[in-house]
Amino acid sequence: MRLLVADVIEHRAHPVIKKQTLVRVPIRLGADVFSGGTISNARCDHLIKSLKAFRLLTEVYGAHYMRCCATSAMREAANREQVLARVEMETGVHIEVISGRKEAKLIMHTFWTQDLSAEKDYLYIDVGGGSTEITVLRRGRRSESASFPIGTVRMLGGQVDEAAWTDLADFLAQVGATGLEAIGTGGNINRLFKENGNAHGTPLLRADIQRHHDRIAGHSLKDRVNVLRLRPDRADVIVPAASIFVRILELADVDRVHVPKVGLADGIVYDLYMKRRGHLHYPTRVA
Predict the structure, then answer these.
(1) What is residue 126's three-state secondary structure?
(2) Hey, how many other C-beta atoms are within 10 angstroms of the C-beta on 100?
């Protein structure tokens, strides 16, 4: 779970999102859902405590608007209606469960917060705990997008079906996505970018991702935390994340990936702002 509190600054080309604070809590609803199909009472308790804390922080920061979205794990939880009702009753926070296509669209909104060319074609890749969203962006317009049940938490549990990879490969072939420039989002690719020491704006090479995968995978989980200084909630998922990125880049015949250090939370803020304040100022080519 992430709480992003941000200021949105008016800019002549597009709004600029300035992060006030970003708080991460490793709830991992998918650890329950992808193995047992439901969210446990214990994990629901943790979710509620975290949302109460998040809500207090939004009040402290004086946030004018708030939006709470749930993705893959909540989409698939058999008891999601009971969990959603309990959360709203105990925290006052309404959780919006978004589809994979909606998730991809929100992530893609971050394109407009970055200095990337609207005249080029891109392959957007966002790797999460339960799903991976792929979007083809052609000259500033979302051309095709799809969500696949391939994620870091799923991989840790051995719950990624090879058929999902076949579907992803077929999608890339059908939409002609091979050879495009790639954009990678999510906390793990951001960390890999940092590990590689890239200057801001320079792309990360597929070979670099593979190299860091092999290096990190060669350490025990304990040493990844104590020696490599990875956060405990990052130390286990970064290896499957690197594997997912490398395989997608191989399937798409792409050697380089831009890492703008934004993700779903930034896209939610941008979309919320545009709907509440910015739609009168900024036309959008994201459809």
Answers:
(1) strand
(2) 20
Those residues whose C-beta lies under 8 Å from the C-beta of residue 66, and which sit 6 or more positions away, are 55, 58, 93
The answer to whether the CB of 266 falls within 8 A of the CB of 191 is no
Q: Is residue 287 scored above 50 in pLDDT?
A: no
Give the length of the chain.
287
124-146 tens-digit pLDDT: 899 999 999 998 988 767 788 89
Q: Which residue from 185, 191, 154, 173 is spatially nearest to 252, judged by alpha carbons?
A: 173
The two three-digit tokens of residue 9, written as one number: 């600054």
Residue reference for tokens 């005249």: 119
Strand partners, 185: 126
Q: What is the pTM of this model?
A: 0.83
Sequence-distant contacts of 279-287: CB under 8 A, at least 24 apart: 281/10, 282/14, 282/15, 282/112, 284/112, 285/118, 285/140, 285/141, 286/105, 286/108, 286/109, 286/111, 286/112, 286/140, 286/141, 286/142, 287/141, 287/142
